[in-house]
Fold:
Amino acid sequence: MRVKLPATKPEEIREQGIFPNGFLPLPHPNHAEGGMVFPKFHIDEVKKQEGRGLTRFDLDFDLPDHFLPEFPAPIFLTTRPDLGDVSKGKLVTVMNYYELFNGILNPKQLEGLRLLLTPFPQQQFNQTEDRRTEEPSRGVVCFECHANGHTNASTHLVGDIRPQEFRHRIDTPSLRGVNIQRLFGSQRALKSVEDFTEFEQRAAYFDGDPVIAQKKGVNVLDRGSQVHAMAELQELLDFPPAPKLDVFGKLDAAKATESELRGQKVFFGNGQCSACHAPPYYTDNLMHNLKVERFYKPHMINGRMASADGPIKTFPLRGIKDSPTYLHDGRLLTLDDTVEFFNLILELKLGEQDKKDLVAFMRQL
Ligand code: HEC
Ligand code: HEC
Structure:
C-alpha cells in the first residue's frame, strides 16, 4: 500500500517508522573513521596539475558523480561582472592562479588566493605515520573542497560534537555569496569569514584536537595579513548570474515561464518558504530548528546516531541549482527531493503541480 505521508501526522509517521530513509541524517562514508574525502574527478585533476596525491587508502567518496556540482565550476567576481566566468573552464590551482588572475585582482587578493590554494597539513593528509595516504602528504588546500570558490561536494565530519556517532556529516557549502551572509558554519554561527578561515585550519582540520594539530604541523595563519587577504578574496566570489530575476530578486514576468511564476507564488504563499528564505538572496541570515526528529525515533544508521540536529543555518537559495547535494549533510540529492522534504516536514500538503512549479522556480534563482 502507498502511504500518503503529508496527510499523516508527525507522531504517526514516527510511531509507524515510515519516514523516508532518504530524509534521515546521512552518515559519513565511514562514520567511525571520518575525515576529509574528495570526489575522484577532483583527485585526478589535482594529481595532473600538481602531482599531489589526495587518495585515501582506507576510503572512497560515496555519492555518484552525476549528483555532484559541475566541475570545474565557473567563477564570478563581484568586482568584474562584465567578465562572466573567469575560470576559463579550468580548476584553479597554485599552478595556474597567477596566470588566470593577474590583472583582475589586486596584489592583496592575489596573495589571498595563493594561500587558499596552498596545501596545509590536516588530520588525514600529513607527514606522520598517522595519516590516510600511502605517501607522506603536503596536506590539503581550502579550494580542495571549495573547488573554484564553489563546492565539489567533498565531505567530512563536523569538529565539535562528541561522541563520534553524534557528529554530523557536513557537505561543503559554496563560498559564492559569503559576502552577503552573517553566520558561518551550519551550526557554529561564527560571525565573520575571517573567523571561519582561521577556525577551519586551527580546529576543523584536526577534528577539534589542538594536541594532534601541534604534532601533525598545524599552520597558524597570521590574522592581520594572511587571514585578511584570504577572507577578502572569498568576499569577491559572487553568486552565478540569474537573468530572470529583477532587482528585488523576484522573477521578471516578461522573462519567466508560467510554471516558474506559479512556483514563485507557492514559494511566497502557501509553501511559506519565504518566511526563512527571504529575497533577494533567499536567506534570513538566521538559524532555525526544523525539528525533523518529530518524524523518527533516534536510531543508528551506519555508525551515525540519527537524532535531533538542532538549529541549522538557513542556507541562501540564490544559485541553489548549482550546489547539489542539499542540506548541511547533503542527504537530499536533488532539488525535487528538497521540495518533497519541506512539503513533509512543514506539513504543507502541496499538490503535484505545486511541487513541480516550486522546483522550476528554484532553478531560476
Ligand atoms: C574537507 C573539505 C574542506 C576544506 C579543505 C575546507 N573547507 Fe571550508 N567548509 C567545509 C565544510 C564541510 C563546511 C561547512 C561547515 C559546517 O557546516 O560547520 C565549510 C564551511 C566554510 C565556510 C563557511 C561557509 C558557510 O556558508 O557557512 C567558510 C568561509 C570556509 N569553509 C572557508 C574555508 C577556508 C578558508 C578553508 C581553508 C583554510 C576551507 N574552508 C577548507 C569544507 C571544507
Ligand atoms: C522555518 C524556516 C524554513 C522554512 C519555512 C523553509 N526553509 Fe528551507 N531551509 C531552512 C534551513 C534551516 C535549512 C538548512 C537545513 C539543514 O541543512 O539541515 C534550509 C535548507 C533548504 C534547502 C537546501 C539548501 C542547501 O544549500 O543545501 C532548500 C533547497 C530549501 N531549504 C528550500 C526550501 C523550500 C522550497 C521551502 C518551502 C517549501 C523551505 N525551504 C522552507 C529553513 C527553512
